[in-house]
Amino acid sequence: MSNRAAGNFPEVTNLEGLLARLRTAGAHEEVVTLDDIRGHLGRRAFGPVLAIAALPSLTPIATVPLLPTTLSIIIFLTSVQMLMGMRQIWLPRPLLSQSIGRARLNRTIELAMPVARFIDRLIRPRLVFLTREPTVYVIGTLCCLLALFMPPLELVPFTGGIPALPVLLFGLAMTARDGALVLVTFAMIGAAALGLAYLGISLL
Fold it and tell me: Which among 41, 124, 126, 194 has most CB atoms closer than 10 A?
């Protein structure tokens, strides 16, 4: 039912809008499922799904056992479907049945909202061609790789946000059609890769 309702929602173009949309998912239920959330974002909303899947790893909700791993699976599957050129997002039913309490979800949204408003002042449509093919295939590849780092980092407190941050930025860039943010995120990943390479060489 939630998936059918998704078509009635206007397009979301920023993080505050994504959080507001998230708040309405399963509005009359004590427990909100991932299927409720996907239904309110839309089956074709690759950017919003990436952003929403990455965001919890940057908040206190990341301490919920196995949540970062579950979200990394969503990021990986969504990214693979981007690479395959699919127009709709498919997720397995057992994954969609995963849930979170309404009270915990609302607390997380309230904590994230001030940051969302700040970020939204910085992003806007520009260099739009960088949010489309073929760049989207590079974004999809990087998001797949970043998702693979998230489960092992769940064992180290407060580190899951490291790979989740660029995924969030890519998701926001695709949502807002902000190619400049894509370039910034590429630069961030490149700098991190060079830093790790330098550290590895220095330890040899």
Answer: 41
